[in-house]
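Thread amino acids onto this structure.
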């Protein structure tokens, strides 16, 4: 029997189906994954999420498995290597943003906080579960988180990117009402 999924989940792409079925809308508290997803959502700006998802393993290799300490120390040679890597999106601003984000992330950790503590504090530790109807591209909450992350020094964290990030890390569950993932979590 075929599972009913959200309409955006491309049935021809096994990676995309696995992402929809096991990650999207599932609460995440793993720091490395939260950092990874923040950067991947930023890399997605102007592109499709499927494009980035298809390159995710390449990103993990290119960005030292999202080790923020290593990324924060990247210099011109590593940037040149990344910009020559056809396995990732070769955009100078997005590569620079990942380095800046690693530095901002390390400052956040040094302050005694974390992405997990910061992000989940906005929703009281519980995902926002939206009802039926159209899914927004951004919300007042994503506006607020976007501004707060920018104040902390993060880049490529506009409100639309942050709303997609919130969906990807499960702060928001926007699965369609008839999607098996929504039904499984009730």
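Threaded sequence (186 positions):
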């Amino acid at each position: 029997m075929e599972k009913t999924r959200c309409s955006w989940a491309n049935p021809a792409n096994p990676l995309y189906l696995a992402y929809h079925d096991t990650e999207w809308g599932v609460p995440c508290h793993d720091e490395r994954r939260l950092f990874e997803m923040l950067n991947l959502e930023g890399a997605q700006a102007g592109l499709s999420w499927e494009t980035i998802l298809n390159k995710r393993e390449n990103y993990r290799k290119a960005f030292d498995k999202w080790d923020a300490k290593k990324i924060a120390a990247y210099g011109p040679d590593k940037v040149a290597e990344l910009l020559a890597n056809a396995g990732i999106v070769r955009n100078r601003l997005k590569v620079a943003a990942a380095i800046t984000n690693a530095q901002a992330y390390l400052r956040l950790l040094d302050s005694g906080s974390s992405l997990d503590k910061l992000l989940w504090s906005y929703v009281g530790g519980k995902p926002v579960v939206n009802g039926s109807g159209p899914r927004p591209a951004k919300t007042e909450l994503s506006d607020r988180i976007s501004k707060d992350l920018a104040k902390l020094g993060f880049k490529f964290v506009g409100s639309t990117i942050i709303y997609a990030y919130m969906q990807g890390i499960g702060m928001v569950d926007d699965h369609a009402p008839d999607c098996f993932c929504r039904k499984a979590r009730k």
